[in-house]
Amino acid sequence: MEKLRADILTSFKNRKINVFILFLFFAFVILMFTKLSKEYTNTIAFDVEKLNIPQENIILNDSTKINITLKTHGFRWLKYYFSKPKIKIDFNEDVHKKEGVFVWNKSKAYLNNIQFDKAVEILNISPDPITFRYGVNMVKTVPVLFNTDVSFSPGFSTTSAIISEPDSVTVVGPNILVSEIESLELEDVTFKDIKSDILEKVNIKLPQNVSDLKFSTNQVVLKAKVEKFTEGTLKIPVSIINAPKNTNLKYFPRMVSVSYYVSLSNFNAIKANDFKVVCDFNKTNENQSFLIPELVKTPGLVQHSKISQQRIEFIITK
Asked: Can you tell me the distance from the alpha carbon of 48 to that of 57, in angstroms, rounded to the nearest whole number?
């Protein structure tokens, strides 16, 4: 009985404490709402976010801040304290050039209409106007170079060379730095046992002093079409060039086999007249009784073309 009475008394006391904490919390919330509902005036340093700076120019005083005195209620002030405030300045529309500087002198009304809520009143902007000293940049487009280690699954190959998109990069920065850049290389990349199209993003190796330079991109896409390949063979007639005049030249064989690799999709497109095999008589000596066949014309769709016959026997009859 005594234990039950003690438990009830303890529960009652704990309930009193909980009610007190609850009332204390509500009082704090009401106080905060009261404070935040009032208007306050304060000055905040805004960072400048520069937009559309002309490529040929570089801003020298790049840490410019704008001190703006605002008047608004407490709720509006919260966002300025929880996130770093910025003012956007568009160099296409908001500034003009004057004696080697860009000048910004927009009015308080302009900022109110463009970048601030109607409930925020701008009391002062400092400094006003703001000047941005600039230097002249060099703009240069340089090629992207890469070496790839590629191995294909048996029977597969590319139908064309691996390319990068884009194949060049625009570099903007101080003349002394940009003039030294003739090309940009990609990070090393390896493709193994490839049997499908290559499509890979690869980062560019950026040079030192990268903070003073701007690049149109810092990565490219390597691309190549990969298909199943097969071997083909065709009989190609042999032509003799630079033969002696007023002589009758007999040679054998008059046709040779040419083997090549081609994608399955292009196999039927390859014809004998796409190839040309010649023997140059000027490349023989007096005691030589044979000619060396050369493959001087091949279609762009084939790879690894070769002639099976290495010698063409000949005799000269008057």
From this structure: 17
Token couple for 70: 């605002």
Helix 74-82 vs helix 2-37: crossing angle, to nearest 10: 90
What whole-number distance in Å separates Cα of residue 304 and Cα of residue 156?
A: 13
Residues ≥6 apart with Cβ < 8 Å to 285: none
| Residue 34, pLDDT above cutoff 70 | no
Query: Distance (Å, rounded) from C-alpha 27 to C-alpha 24?
Result: 5
Kindly report, as residue ranges, where domains of CATH 2.170.120.30 are found in the chain: 229-317
Are the beta carbons of 144 and 186 closer than 8 angstroms? yes
Query: How many residues does this entry show for the chain?
Result: 318
Please state which CATH class domain 229-317 belongs to: mainly beta
CATH 3.40.50.720 fits 136-224, yes or no: no
**pLDDT for the residue numbered 12:** 47
Closest CA to 221 of 182, 189, 178: 189
Q: How many whole angstroms from its chain centre is CA 219? A: 3
pLDDT digits (tens, 9 = 90+) for 162-221: 999 999 999 988 887 888 899 999 999 999 999 999 999 999 998 876 777 889 999 999
Q: What are the residues whose beta carbons fall under 8 Å from the beta carbon of 32, sequence distance 6 or more?
A: none
